[in-house]
Design goal:
This protein is of the alpha/beta class. Helix content is 43%, strand content 20%. It binds nicotinamide-adenine-dinucleotide.
């Protein structure tokens, strides 16, 4: 490693940040709150960014092996401590299901791409050679959702560190405790492996103001925001380059040629996963009339429980609330709850082992229009597949996020793919196949939709740089 002024400045800044951390820890210990700010956890955005900047300068001077080592530690912690961390995430957020919380951490071990995704493009000709390579941005501001707090942070961290960056994260307040715990564990292990602390920093008590302070900080070079419409809009208003993984409302179309048993199984797997918290999860089904009843029967063979009209009415009244202007909003008490708990809250009961609630509605039911994030999926009967696709397009709301079809007709599949124009388009499987879980391809918990980067990778978080040698080094 070459010792430069910049490197020395970086080390000094990092030591100062660590001294401040140490003081914070001592103060916290003495006042009994136990609110340490060690190992990446800060209360002040300026301090977090300064520590991450210092860490990134040192990291930038390291080779790819140090990046590999840092990422390997994150993967190892997610895999080895998945049960404990998943349990703590569920206890804190109180949404979703334990098995999914654990699985979402376990898959981080081998499904999120790392350093191997970086590549060098080369051009060679009579004028010499040029090399195009992928360089870090620096410090990246990260916003994470409550639906997968630690998995999103760990996934972003692997992608971003692979690209040579450092992170300052404003987690969702509802999942901040587990995110901070993860950051402490990751930083400690990375420090033990390569001697650099604070590559991942986080705000311990996040607020909208601290998010805005990250958006506005001059040393934050890029943003990656995963969440609903409000935060997506806020990031898009920022003058910085923003990667926005925004909301969805994924529709499913089932036509008369589909394998109905596979369609039903897939809808239960995808729509029931973590109680339908996934942004890619099946949220509403449009099925053609000729197979509608058979599809509904097939659902019950896969631990789906069909609700009657009265139960759907009771659930709808309980799961949505109207504001002063009579606009409906999702009742947050229902988000990510178990099917049996949802039923209980709506005044009826279903077996405890129910995977997914479903039932016939018309398109005006709010479960069709809203991204409800609950394990109840409305099924709408349509005259033919063209009207099913038209409704799917209408209720995806132009988010261009995810759509799913069950069909054996290639023309129908092609037509829907073109019409929907979604980032993920899954055929004949559960939505989770679209991110490599049961389908081909790699995984990310941040699928950039309005900004177009798609399923994010280390390359998403890099700058292209070209080095040109004129008239030499072409050795052919
Ligand atoms: P949310 O929008 O309530 O919160 C997301 C994050 O944004 C949180 O950290 C929150 O504190 C912050 N936030 C909200 N408004 C903000 C503002 N005005 N300025 C700055 N920060 C703000 O979403 P959630 O309930 O945590 O997560 C669910 C949503 O996220 C769904 O809409 C889902 O589709 C989406 N999501 C998308 C992806 C994807 O990859 N595209 C992945 C996961 C979740």
């Amino acid at each position: 490693m070459q010792v430069t002024d910049e490197l020395i400045r970086g080390v000094v800044q990092q030591v100062l940040a660590q001294v401040r951390n140490g003081n914070g820890k001592a103060q916290a210990a003495s006042n009994g709150h136990g609110k340490g700010t060690a190992r990446g956890v800060f209360n002040d955005v300026g301090e977090a960014v300064a520590a991450a900047s210092a860490a990134q300068k040192r990291f930038g001077a390291c080779g790819l092996n140090d990046r590999r080592a840092a990422i390997a530690r994150i993967r190892q912690i997610c895999s080895e401590q998945a049960e404990q961390l998943g349990r703590e995430e569920l206890e804190e957020t109180k949404i979703g299901r334990l098995a999914a919380k654990i699985e979402k951490l376990k898959v981080i071990a081998d499904r999120i791409p790392g350093v191997e995704f970086l590549r060098t493009d080369a051009f060679s000709g009579e004028n010499g050679i040029a090399l195009q390579e992928y360089a870090p941005f620096g410090v990246i501001g990260v916003i994470t959702p409550v639906t997968h707090s630690l998995p999103t942070l760990a996934c972003n961290a692997i992608n971003m560190l692979a690209g040579g960056n450092a992170i300052v994260c404003n987690p969702h307040p509802g999942g901040a405790r587990i995110a901070c715990k993860g950051v402490r564990l990751f930083n400690q292990a990375i420090f033990d492996a390569i001697g650099i602390d604070n590559l991942i920093t986080i705000i311990e008590t996040p607020t909208l103001e601290s998010a805005q302070a990250i958006f506005d900080h001059r040393d934050v070079r890029m943003l990656c925001v995963t969440g609903g419409p409000a935060v997506g809009r806020a990031a898009l208003r920022s003058p910085k380059r923003a990667v926005v993984a925004g909301p969805g409302n994924p529709p499913v179309v089932v036509d008369e040629t589909a394998d109905l048993d596979n369609a039903a199984r897939s809808i239960v797997v995808g729509g029931g996963y973590d109680n339908n918290l996934l942004c890619i999860g099946e949220k509403e089904v449009f099925a053609v009339a000729s197979i509608f009843d058979e599809l509904m029967n097939a659902m019950t063979a896969h631990k789906g429980v069909r609700l009657n009209a009265g139960q759907i009415d009771a659930l709808t009244k309980a799961a949505f609330t109207a504001d002063d202007k009579k606009h409906l909003h999702v009742n947050k008490d229902f988000i990510g709850q178990d099917p049996a708990r949802m039923a209980e809250m709506a005044g009826f009961s279903v077996p405890a082992e129910t995977e997914l609630l479903f039932g016939e509605t018309d398109e005006s039911n709010p479960f069709v229009e809203h991204e409800q994030m609950m394990p109840f999926v409305p099924f709408v009967r349509t005259a033919d597949v063209d009207s099913a696709i038209a409704l799917a397009k209408k209720y995806e709301h132009g988010f261009k996020h995810t759509s799913i079809i069950h069909s054996r007709n290639l023309e129908t599949i092609t037509h829907m793919g073109r019409e929907m124009d979604t980032t993920l388009f899954v055929q004949n499987g559960p939505s989770t196949a679209g991110v490599g879980l049961g389908g081909e391809g790699y995984l990310s918990f941040s699928i950039a939709t309005p900004t177009g980067e798609g399923v994010t990778t280390p390359l998403t978080f890099t700058r292209q740089r070209r080095s040109t040698t004129v008239g030499a080094l072409r050795v052919l």
